[in-house]
Amino acid sequence: MNFGKVLTAMVTPFDKKGNIDFDTTTTLIDYLLDNGSDGLVVAGTTGESPTLSTDEKISLWKHVVNVVGGRVPVIAGSGSNDTRASVELSKQAEQIGVDAVMVVAPYYNKPCQKGLYEHFKAVAGAVGIPVMIYNVPGRAVVKIEPETIIALSNIPNIVSVKEATGDLDSMAAIISKTDDGFSLYSGDDNLTLPSYTIGASGIISVSSHVVGKEMQKMLTLHEQGKRKEAAELHQKLLPIFNGMFSAPSPTPVKEALRIRGIDTGSVRLPLIPLNPDQQNDVRNLFQSL
User: Mean pLDDT across the stretch 190-206?
Assistant: First the structure.
């Protein structure tokens, strides 16, 4: 299943008291859909999922589904390191009406590949909507090996993987050994173009909050055979891609959105806001762009 080329891993706006700001969420959704986002991933890493309660996630998904109104796919980040909890939350996301769930590799537990397989199989067996695997060893400690992802792709409603491994060899193996109906998305902005050239369906991006149109243009240039122009745009965007991870995400991109006129508030502890020097660094990035 192809959810589009540029999906945004959406930040969660907070008000001054640290609660979800649903009015700003509405503004952000409309802004993203007008500026290059083909779909939204809600309550994932960039949405500060570890600090969102179950009730907050459910309320957020309901709001996003309502505001989006079917314009683009809404993918709910419903996974955790607890299989039972992941199953229950995924079932609730399905009832709300999301288009798919994204399930992260269980973190902290450090399961073996067989355990990983059984985890995703259990979630997929509990819902009727598409399931996206989220492979992010930098945060989960464990890496879902290509062979495991390939095996999981044979489960009918496991339709996609977000590969945030930075490993193009693994991506190529998955792309070549899964059916055409199985999609792979890079989870690393700086690999948007390189992964696309080897057959990825697109990117689940942080930077698309602020350069979504430019990322769409880059991929379109590649599709049109204008490889040199696509590469030049990649080089131009690379400082933005790297800058959005110059501090723990999503603090830089929330600052970038504030500069763009959309104040999504601060971050929740244990994350902390950017200091003044870091804020200036983000502002200088956009002045140079």
Answer: 98
101-122 mean pLDDT:
98
Buried b vs exposed e over 149-183: b needs ≥16 C-beta within 10 Å?
bbbbbeeeebbbbbbbbebbebbbbbbeebeeebb
Amino acid, single-letter form, for residue 270: P
Instruction: Extract long-range pairs of 22-31: CB within 8 Å, 24+ residues apart.
Output: 22/59, 22/63, 24/262, 24/263, 24/264, 24/265, 25/60, 25/63, 25/64, 25/67, 26/63, 26/67, 27/262, 28/257, 28/262, 28/264, 29/64, 29/67, 29/68, 30/67, 31/262
Q: Tell me the CA distances in angstroms from 141 to 111, 121, 205, one per residue in order.
A: 10, 20, 21
Which CATH number characterizes residue 101's domain? 3.20.20.70
Displacement of CA 246 from its chain's centroid (Å): 18
State the binding site for pyruvate: 46, 204
* pTM for the structure as a whole: 0.97
Range of 221's domain?
6-225
CA distance 6 to 212: 7
Over residues 155-169, the pLDDT tens digits come to 999 999 999 999 999
CA-to-CA distance for 250 and 255, rounded, in angstroms? 9
Q: Which of 59, 126, 147, 43 is nearest to 96 (CA)?
A: 59
| Structural domain total, the chain | 1
Residues tagged in the binding site annotation:
46, 204
DSSP tag of 105: P
Which residue, 264, 266, 267, is CA-closest to 23?
Answer: 264
Query: Is 272 within a domain?
Result: no
Whether residue 213 lies inside any domain: the answer is yes
Residues annotated as catalytic are: 134, 162
Is 266 contained in some domain? no
Question: Is residue 221 in a domain?
Answer: yes
Phi then psi for residue 129, to 5 deg, are: -95, 165
What crossing angle do the helices spanning 208-223 and 22-34 adopt, rounded to 10°?
20
